[in-house]
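chain below, 155 aa
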Amino acid sequence: MEQLRDLAIRLAMDEPVGDDLPMAAAHALTRGVDSPSVRELAGLSKGQSREAVDLFRQAMDELGYPVPDRSGARLHLMREAAASIVAGKGDPEDLAHKIYWHACYSGLPDLQAVGDRFLELYAGWDATHDQAEKEVAAMKAAAQSFLRDHPTPTP
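prediction:
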């Protein structure tokens, strides 16, 4: 299901995913993720991108995970980056910038303060050993706060 949700986010961000959808649906079926549209989607060939996108949207609705709008996709990507900061995965500086960037373009006014906070952390990043632990701790605290205040929506 995770692969299908990732494709839904990519689709919402206008990335070309049509050719990937039939194979993703076939993989989903082998893992027990099933719906009439998933089965139909798995039977399409790579050359049927437009039909695949329409069927994918229908399948995600049937599975209870509709394809989000662009703002919802950006919020998802922000949560993903924040979770990576908390888990200590990836470069905190790059992840903070990613959160800031998506907040700026989310179109959601309540995320402006979140973006500003991560911009502040990003701009103040100093890679010296003395400050790195303190800065990482501040980013983790900000990421935890963001995740708490903006939980993943349940279908």
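The longest helix spans residues 129-149. The chain has a mean pLDDT of 90.
thats it, cya
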